[in-house]
Amino acid sequence: MKNFIIRSSIKRKIMLITLGTSFLVVMLVSFTLIANQLLRYRHDLQKNLAIIADMVAYSSATSLMFSDPKGASAALSPLSANPIILSGYIFNAEGAAFASYQSTSPDEKCHFMESINDSRSMAHRLALLGGLNNSGFWQFGPCFDMVRPILSEGRNIGFVVLHTSTSQLRDMFISVGAFSALILFCALFLAYFVASRLQNMITQPIMFLARTMQQVSDTKDYSLRVANENSDETGQLTVGFNEMLGQIEQRDTVLELQRDTLETTVEQRTEELRRIVADLEVARDAAEAANQAKSEFLANMSHEIRTPMNGVLGMTELLLGTVLTEKQRKLAQIIYQSGTSLLGVINDVLDFSKIEAGKIELEIIAFDLRDMVSGVVELIATSAGQKGVELNLSIDEDVPHVVTGDPLRVRQVLLNLVSNAVKFTEQGEVAMAVSVTDRSDSESSLCFSVRDNGVGIPPEVLNKIFEGFTQADGSMTRKYGGTGLGLTIAKQLAEMMNGSITVESTPGVGSCFRFTARFGCSIAADSVLDAPTPDAETLLMVKGMGVSILLVEDNPVNQDVGREMLEWLGCRVTVAENGRDALDCLNRGSFALVLMDCQMPVLDGYSATRILRVQEQGQPAPEGGGRHQKVIALTGHACAADRQICIDAGMDDYLSKPFSMKQLSAMLSRWLPPADGTVMQPGDNISISGDIREKMPDPSGLAATARSNVDPSLDRQCIDSIRMLDPDGSKRLLDKVIATFLEESPRVLADIQTAAVANDMNGVLRNAHYLRSSCANLGAVKLAEQCKALELAGRNNSIVDVGPLLASLESEFGSVSVALAAMTTGEAP
Fold this sequence. Notes:
Blueprint: H1 2-7, H2 10-65, H3 69-76, E1 85-92, E2 97-102, H4 112-118, H5 122-132, E3 143-152, E4 155-165, H6 167-198, H7 200-219, H8 233-320, H9 326-357, E5 365-368, H10 369-387, E6 389-395, E7 402-405, H11 407-423, E8 428-439, E9 443-452, H12 459-462, H13 486-496, E10 500-506, E11 510-521, H14 525-530, H15 536-544, E12 548-552, H16 556-568, E13 572-576, H17 579-588, E14 593-597, H18 605-617, E15 631-635, H19 640-648, E16 653-656, H20 661-671, H21 701-707, H22 716-723, H23 732-757, H24 761-777, H25 781-795, H26 799-824
Parallel strand pairs: 6-8, 12-13, 12-14, 14-15, 15-16
Antiparallel strand pairs: 1-2, 1-4, 3-4, 5-7, 7-11, 8-9, 9-11, 10-11
Helix pairs in contact: 2-3, 2-6, 4-5, 7-8, 8-9, 8-22, 9-13, 10-11, 11-13, 15-20, 16-23, 17-18, 23-24, 23-26, 24-25, 25-26
């Protein structure tokens, strides 16, 4: 019903409301009239019956007193004149029937006399008679009884019972109901007639409004309007609707005008966006190029600085192994310490660049935390002792021995903090403490605190001490040096290890740096702790003794130098000239390690390593698990991108050329199997704390060489390092290397000239790289730099730059050749 009303039209709803209201009103009025008539009729009936019953009681009192039934019947005989009285009875005081009257009408019978006659006790009869007189006011049964007492001198001597019919009441109810129904029908018809005529005054404007709204919705014609002839609410609704249509029409007109100019505006804005995008792309390309140039510059600068610095440190290291006076040894130590500091600055700059580029990744390996921390303190202890600063270390008992993380980066952070504390403390002590801040089954959070009583940090600098290139004293007259990058790098590394670095400082009192980091729990902690720690140099010599090494190198000079270094370390060396020969050697025999040059003819080191890895996949080891030949790349670059290329090609590690004896020894230590025969996994590290120079021979000719002057075209230290490889201190290896260089280099130089004439830039690049490697090993630094410049010209396909560079190369080669020839004939020491 509700849904029917909701779906009905407003016209039907008004009609239903009108008819429903009329029906309810008429029904209420009719019900009120019928009830009033029935009640009035019943009241009159009761009143008349009471009068008749009292008259009968009065007439029959004497007959009842004298027990005269005939007289009593005569008193009842007038009842026959009233047709609604069906029967009449006179009862004595005991409730027994004394006289009766019965109408001849068979319409209705009452059976109360049967109940009274069946009653055996007077009390029960009297109760029945009393019940007849208790008829309810709203009782409308087929019969109606009236009971009146018969009194004589105030004493009840009997009862008169009149039994009447209610047929007239029913007839009257039916007639009144029928009349009310007729009135209801007429009222509803009249209401429908009136509502159907008057509702149009309300519904017609609404219908017009609805049709117009539908038409506007279908045609989108907002110029339509609804005629308004009313001033009531429907009229106000019509006015509001027309105003809305007007506003929409006005808006559409404005939009139409704007749309006419929108295409032009869009084209203009699109062109502006194109220009902006183009500018942004240019700016992005410039930024990427600048970033790439910065990375390349740092890599090149690293290579350029590391090459002479390795020579300086290597030769100084060798020099310290010779017989020196106290003053000479002190000067050499100062040179070595200064070179080490310079390398530290270079490493800070490179680390800062890597952090900015997001290229630093942490290793996750197991290491002995206590040994690492003790090693840091031992490393700084010498410089602290020289200043008279006491260096203390305390490690809580609950600090785990073995954890998993990146020991090199943790060591880097601790070295920076401890070295800074010692540097800024003139007297007193520096204390480092290690404690556990949080621990679970899988992780431990450790806190490393470094406290000093040095100069302290001013409050205005404390908040930016971890910013790049920031120092507490940045003036030109500052007492303490440094790049200001150490703490910045330490902070970034701490955050990468899910930790932080904080500082508390008071000027003139001291500072306290706290470094926190999270470490994993090592499963093999017990085995690591129980393992013995042999002397590092003894481990190196035992591992190297008799181990087979495959040296893959196309340059004869590099072959001789590399072979002699490896043989001095106790290795058996096999030399292959290119990647194809290296694969043949690996197929014929087994090698503990392969030193693979990257750029070679026939088959380069990258391709050879890839082929080797493919072959290994089809050759499982007898004891299960795939066979893995350890391959170390030999490259002339130290850039992270070059290292990644080596790793992507399948190589395990890389070694930059030219390399020193110590670098080669450390690489062998890392990758050769331990003395007990166990096999290391790729990425495992062995730290060497010993000093190889103590194992090296001390030929008597070195002191004389150190005091002599060699041609400025050559680096004397490189010459001495080659001579050091001879066990007896002779010039046998040096003469052989020089002879090979003087024999091979003219041919290579001729190939460079031929390639330049033919505009073969790849040939220029390949031969210049080949010659540069030999020059670097013999100390021809300037000649090597000119070869590198030719490499760059060949890589950039710059034929214009080749001519002048080639002329300079030929001139310098002549000077180098004369100097080397003089050394072999004995004209120079």
